[in-house]
Model the fold of this input.
Amino acid sequence: PVVKGRERHRFTMATRITMDLLRKRAEHNECEITTLEEITLHQQDIERIELLDTACRDLKILYLQNNLIKKIEHVTRLRQLEYINLALNNVKLIEGLEGCEMLNKLDLTVNFVHDLTSVKRLKANRHLAQLYLTGNPCTSFAHYREYVLNHLPQLMELDGTKITRTERILAMQKAEEIDKEVERDSAAAVEREARRVAKLQAKKDKKPGFDGSWYCDTQSTNSARKEPKIVEIGSSDESEDEELDPEEEAAFWKEEEEFTPESRYDTAIRAKKQREAQEAKKAGKKLDKKKKLRKRRYFKEDGKPLNMNDSGLQFELQGQLENGVPLVLDLYLYKFLDTSQIDLDVQPWYVRVIVKDKVFQLALPEEVSPDRSKAERSQISGHLVVTMPKEGQELKRPTPAPVGRARDEARAKAAGADVAAAPSRELLEIPDQPAKGINVATIVQEAREAKKVVGTTRRDRVPPRENDPDFVDDDDVPPLE
Done:
């Protein structure tokens, strides 16, 4: 790939692992961090691993893929860690995992590991069974797979492929030759990477050219340069983000460049800047939309209220042109509408209800008393019932419904029947003297008498019967029992 001579815009976008972030990601564990066994921190633009070895000592599964992590650190105290995913990061060296005694799976897919000899540091992880290094520069070495098999005999799978016994035996037969070749290739790859980084740093340290840019590209057609914006320190413009130039953004994404940790970092920065710009644009549109709402008119020029029904709600107004009866507005609101979304205002000549920025206003035919008005909400239908007594009106207390004989007489009178001719009901008589209660003084004596009555048998109470004259007492016949 071709590297164009244009300096990338570099913005600060690092995301740190904090206690708040850990609690936010520990919702499945009731926000408890100390007992957390699994946590997901992927796609958070994290540049450094920190705080995990002290705050989450019981971690077993750790997801850190698709971040900007450069070094594996602060995980050596996680003794119970079984799986760590560091795919799509900027890791250059396998290290810092010696203390993870229970480590079973390590995923370093698509990183920047140049030194293949660093896999020797995984010998201490005796339970390591799966290792993924696909997409790293070291996988292009001639004897990459054989080298890993020779130095990690505990492995069962490498890059998703099971390791056979035959493959392992063949690799061991050429162990010395493979080690020398891989060590030579690793040293060359590390040296090339070091030269590339030094060259990039030298370009950054160069002084600006005559036009204020970092490079003197005479072939560039973009000769027009923006004037630098002078911002006073501490002003409100200092914290504002610079607007993205569409042409510059399009040129950035079309530009071909070598796949390096720096290019991945810049790509992540640009992607985040675009997301933030889109979110700000959406928020600005919503704000502008609210500002552009036309000013509502609630009254006519003569001061009379207007009738409005933005949501098209059905309603009923009862008590019109009736004396002694208040005005009752029954507004058909939605059953599951939260009451906090309703704003009610009762005035002498109108009533206004605002439901989610939608206005319902009704001009009243008679003047009402707002201080004595009341509003109720049905829990079954969701309707809003507003009772508004008329000005100067005395509300009559409702007469209680007749019960018993009075109710029967009222029904018979309404039916046109003779009340006197109606059959009267027979009621149970209540004795004048109350029922005898329990006498505490004689309760023991009464219990003894009851016991005596219970102890007597029927034979004791009934006199014996005389024998029949024809009765013959035969000794051979046994007596009846």
The CA atoms of residues 442 and 448 lie 10 Å apart. The longest helix spans residues 175-205. The longest strand covers residues 350-355. DSSP finds ten helices and 15 strands in the chain.
